[in-house]
Amino acid sequence: MNNQKVKLTVYGADQICASCVNAPRSVETYEWLQAAIARKYQEATIEYEYIDIFKPPNEKKHIDFARRVQDEEFFYPVVLINDELVDEGNPRLKKVFQALEENGIS
């Protein structure tokens, strides 16, 4: 097991994006990702962060990225690992797992 620091960030909102009909809410996706990752990588140390795009923390990087999502540059929820875009809209576990492994999680 590699003890590399990995941070998974999900940007989303309480409302479902207009283009994501029948998709779960962003918070539900965030919780689902945590559970799926915990099952597969039981001993991994991963920091999780959820950012509401309409109420981002007062940090420039979060405010800027939230604005990009609001401006429809991305479909939410948007999943990043170590600040690198992994997937958007309805994230796929395969892509998330691949990105985790590329960042040292095994």
Main features:
34% helix, alpha+beta, 106 residues
What can you see in these coordinates?
With 106 residues, the protein is α+β, with helices and mostly antiparallel strands. It is 34% helix and 22% strand. The protein has 3 helices and 4 strands, in the order βαβαββα. It has helices at residues 26-40, 60-70, 93-102; strands spanning 6-12, 46-52, 78-81, 84-88. Strands 2-1-3-4 form a 4-stranded mixed sheet, with helices on both faces. A hairpin with a 2-residue loop joins strand 3 (78-81) and strand 4. The radius of gyration is 13 Å and the shape is globular. 25% of the residues are buried.
Brief sketch in words of this structure:
With 106 residues, the protein is α+β, with helices and mostly antiparallel strands. The chain has 3 helices and 4 strands.
What is the element layout, followed by pairings?
Layout: E1 6-12, H1 26-40, E2 46-52, H2 60-70, E3 78-81, E4 84-88, H3 93-102
Parallel strand pairs: 1-2
Antiparallel strand pairs: 1-3, 3-4
Q: Please tally the β strands and state the result.
A: 4
User: For the residues shown, what is the average pLDDT?
Assistant: 91
**Rg for CA atoms:** 13 Å
Order of strands in the sheet with the most strands? 2-1-3-4
